[in-house]
Amino acid sequence: MSFLSETLARVKPSPTIAVSNLAAELKAAGRDVIGLSAGEPDFDTPEHIRAAGIAAINEGHTRYTAVDGIPDLKEAICAKFKRDNGLDYTPKQVTVGTGGKQVLYNALMATLNKEDEVIIPAPYWVSYPDMVLLAGGTPVFIEAQLENDFKITPDQLEAAITRNTKWFLFNSPSNPTGAGYSRDELKALTDVLLRHPHVWVLSDDMYEHLAYDGFQFCTPAEVEPQLYDRTLTVNGVSKAYAMTGWRIGYAAGPEPLIAAIRKVQSQSTSNPCSVSQKAAVAALNGPQDFLAPNNEMFVRRRNLVVDMLSAVDGITCPVPDGAFYVYPSIAGLIGKKTPAGVEITNDEVFATELLNDCGVAVVFGAAFGLSPNFRISYATSDALLKEACSRIQAFCAKLS
User: Fold this and answer.
1) What domain count does the chain have?
2) Predicted model pTM
3) Of 72, 118, 117, 67, which is closest to residue 261 (Cα–Cα)?
4) Same domain, yes or no: 175 and 237
5) Cα angle 302-308-314, degrees, rounded to a multiple of 5
6) Of 229, 260, 285, which closes a domain?
7) Which segments constitute the Aminotransferase class I/classII large domain (predicted)?
């Protein structure tokens, strides 16, 4: 009999973290490695947010807080939802966790039973399926193909719903593709959900403010108010505010669900970091003028990467609407061989050979549920992105 839990055998470690760790190990060993796997902005946290964190320490805000968030942060979150999304919530409808990841995990742990299904469009963020499995549920995947801009259709959603469906897990703009759903496209999906009142919506809006080229972000409960009472809208300060290490995520939804999430959190981590909560208040309530120039830099980087990868014979790289990822297809490279005779049979082999040959660390598409692709995070400097893409071009040119 194994000492470890049978539940643990249902899941695997995060592939994105594994690639980042491998890149770090190779760098420490002296290899020239460019890591493009981490979804983390290279910008500093804005000064006024850092100042709020320092002030919190100096003012003694270093003790336990309420399990799921201090009152002024919950008020700031309610104001954010009203200001940005036209959604009215009270503090009792808000939960704050140690990153958006914990909030998602808590929601699934609080609601899933054996045989419950969670519909997840693929490609998906690598942690979604494993969190569902840890919570005892069953992930059900809908493939969103390149031909449809990596977005699912209403007919696909309708076909995936069963009597066991508990959640539809939605993410726009998407990690890993950057694909965003327009208001009309999202309304078509919510129309399907209205016909199935037993299905709840878990909307991961983490990349809300990272939207480009006129793409207008919208969230399900905003588009279809009739879904308000069965939607949990998740967000956080990690990405747009360059606060990944501060670890603050939040969500708003029906009070009974928020109470259940609070119960889970009370018996796991308890409250998020008190200092980080104060900094998050400053992030949400303070100046937002840094977002536009940051996005301009992301657009420039996105265009650089898309242009350089699109110049490679065998790679198709669509232009994403938001976030800071591209998800190129390598369908045209499958079956080719490296000079050493290694055949590119799938995207994992491609990523492995790319790292071994030229020191560029990317995440293979199978980790996100759709192949043959790979994901690049362009949340790093222009110089590193240009060098990395040049190396990818040179690697692919050697394939025959």
Assistant:
1) 2
2) 0.95
3) 67
4) yes
5) 115
6) 285
7) 32-392
